[in-house]
Amino acid sequence: MTTTATAPVSPARPRDEPPYGGAVSKPPRQTGRHLMLATIALLWLLPLLWAVYTSLRPYADTSKHGYLSWPRGISLQNYTDAWNQSGMPHFFWNSVLITVPSVLGTLLFSAAVAFFVSRFDFRWNIALLMLFTAGNLLPAQVLITPLYRLYLLVPLPAWMSDSLLLYNSTWGIIAIHIAYQCGFCTFVLSNYMKTIPGEISEAALVDGAQVWRQFFQIILPLCRPAFAALATLESIWIYNDFFWPLALIETGDKRPITSALANLQGQYFTNPNLIAAGALMTAVPTLLVYFALQRQFISGLTIGSGKG
Amino acid sequence: MPSASPTAPPAPAPQAPATGASRRRPRRLGPGDRLFLAVVIGVPLLALLVFVWLPALASMGLSFTSWDGIYLSDIHWVGLDNYHQILTNYPPFWPAVRHNVIWLLFTALLPTPFGIFLAYQLDRKLRFTRVYQTAIFLPMVLSLAVVGLIWEIIYNPDTGLLDGILNAAAPGHHVDWLGDPDLNLWAVLVASAWRHTGYIMILYLAGLKGVDPALKEAAALDGANGRQTFLKVVFPALKPVNVIILVVTVMESLRAFDVVYVLGGGVGSKPGMELLSLLITDNIIGESSHIGYGSALAVVLLLVSLAAIGTFLVQNFRKEDR
Amino acid sequence: MTLQSRTVLTAPQPSRRTVVGGLFGLGAAALAAPLLTACGGGAAADPKTVTFGSNGADATPKSAYAAVTKAFAKESGLTVKTNTVDHDSFQKSISSYLQGTPDDVFTWFAGYRMQYFAKKGLATPLDDVWEKIGGGFSEATKQLSQGEDGKFYFVPLYNYPWGVFYRKSLFQERGYTVPRTWSEFTALAKRMKKDGLSPIASGYGGGDAWSILGAFDYLNLRANGYEFHMSLMRGEVSWTDKRAATTLDLWREISPYYQQGAGGRSWQDAAQSLLDKKSGMAVIGLFLGQQVSDEALRADIDFFPFPEIDPANGQDAVEAPTDGFMLSRRPKNEKGAKKLLEFLGSAKAEGLYMGVDPSNVAVHAQADTGSYNPLQKKSAELIASAKHITQFADRDSDPGFISTVVLPGLTQWLGHPDDGAALLKRIESQRSRFFTS
User: Fold this and answer.
1) Is Metal-binding among this UniProt entry's keywords (chain B) (predicted)?
2) The complex's ipTM?
């Protein structure tokens, strides 16, 4: 393969090198590139900065002078108001209760399936993989009506949900997130696991290690970068989802963070500055996750590609 | 809502573990192992079948019925009637199809190549590369509420940024970005492109990191300039990633929902911005639902999607089957 | 292969491990959390508790409902457990809500919208409640609260009229007079336009498309009368009827006086332009007042009934949507819930509510109107004088028909109004899908 052909030219270098760390030949026109990239990045940030600017201004100011004007008083008042008026802490917690178990469940389930299809040679592996992957590609609207009916039929014990049903319970939302997102993660993880050399598990088998130990002690730790990448993407998707709870949760107090915003969005009267502040606050958790896992994000998605 | 897959299908692993295992027979799978494997595959499979495929199949069945979504006894079989109605007597249907196609073409021709371009620019030793990446990927991280709000305060005809600037430059000018049915689809597409670019960039960047740097350097030493290196060496080497980018683009375009829904005020399809996914929502969610009708629309979308994914899946997995 | 091995075998940096580990830790905590919070729930059939589903998530209605339920709790010794869902989500999920495990009493709207769920058996009849509260309500209100089967299903709380709102000071400054007839109205609009105003404030962008229906309803009511309007709403006559075309003709006549760029504007911004004296008039509901925090400004707001078009109909119909309560189909605590409904149907409850939320008008005959502001007083008089009361297009008709067929059609048409033949044909083509008899 290509590797053999090019190996003499340059020995492989570790990927996560600091910039300029071992630069041999500096490419020309770097300034131009910076200029271009900085412009684009700024352009991309502009809409967000505009929202931040709006959120910092009192409604009285903007309704009088317009939004495209110099500020007469910048304050965090909108943020405190949004925080207090919408019951945001409560809804944040609801979203955590939905997102964290969903992401972990998705990763665990898909790791299991990926382990199965990538490390063992069963006849139905490819069909299975296709079933999982295709499941994630179904439009969510296709599922909602029968799912709602199904949820009304599944009883839950009182300690799990006061609705006594899968319907109107956080568990129901977690379940559909896991089932629906599993396909995507299985796909990524199975590709990732295939890149783990077979010798590793063979050695384990020779040592007489049980399969479950192989899974938990060898394969899962090796998949950490992929987990980080998937955790980022899935957190973003699941946290931001507003579709499933719309039909599957009826108690206002159980709804996720998107509801807090809807509460700010008055039926008749809306204060855009307040909404901007509220909306920006809801974006903080995903931003934190992204920044925390950013280093692994790209390398985790980098799996066995580029050998066409 | 989630999107399609970013990773590349790897070439067949030369040391396929299981074959290796069976050849050398280090230890047969014991009963405990088998039980473990059964659980490991059984539970997720059950969840998938019950929560995803069962409802999907039920929806397909419902698409041949007429039902208001309340009592099961009110489900009436109508055969292909819903499909017939949709194709011949549903005014927003063909506009929605057209908009989906426009969406696809636009996304495939602008933000996708641009994302690839950015990824290529950032895939090198460059100071601040992470800053750039973050800035461009940020729209993907933001919640939809934020995205909706941001573009709302940009496009607002009275107080928005765009019309504000326009008004300052040429007073009296007034563009109704989101209200004009000839314009609003494009306004929404800009918002969508703003997110999509970062997504593609990240996926491609991931793919590029997987290209052996030696390959690129070899091409560079041969005297090829950047563009040639990319077009002749890197791009072909990334065929699997390219396929995925293509699938992601197609799927995102066919299923496009969120941004339009939010910018349309969260009330379903608006003139000029009809999309298949929104028509389904119109018919399924709400006070007087037409489940059969909506399901039929969903099946239409599903068939189109499956055609798109199907080619991809078959192409992807057949290679492994060899 | 170097490539693959490298990815995998690179020793994970400590930071990575801690991050991922931390995440898992947090996850374990969160996995356990629902178990803890779920405990203590399951008050399925507590005879001491009535559950109440409310769509009043805004600060004002929320505290108004709280005042009412608190008074009831004090009076009856029962506990009211309120489940508040924002107005939009409540409406969107109402169908699944009512079939799921709904609260005993829930907020809803009078008209076709109430009758639909009554007909579907998703609500419990309230005839026994009405025996006790019936004396306090007018005949029109009683009709409004009945299903198609003649039984009562609804307990009204308040209503609010739609009219043409304006600022008194603007009319004074410019010497405008309140128009009574259609020709006076169009002449005034023309004059306003000449004076550099947007004559009719308009904003139906985003989720605000419903705001145009007030004008449509009034045009249709004034030109074609109550009976035709209601038949049209209930899907009993064809939308290609000549009379519907007349309504569009009238609308087209005033469309040049509509504020520009309305398709992307929120109604709230449109209302703001009225308050800023950039627009002259607005066809809107009394809830306009919620936008005003300055009392001096509020005192400057007034409204007049939509002008007369056909003398045969005069100004006899008033659009006054009524909000109130219904009882779900299998209430967990029927006795308690009915007690709550009796209380909600009393003058006292209405007084309590209106005390907090002054942008509505009580419907109970004995409700205390002493604290009304002038706008409320005028509203109450207008509604009392009406021969016919309509609810609003999306309440008098199938809401799905209105929101997915009529509204997209009308908003698109308003952008470039023509004779409307294509639009009406388009609407008509979908009518049978929603109204099967």
Assistant:
1) no
2) 0.83
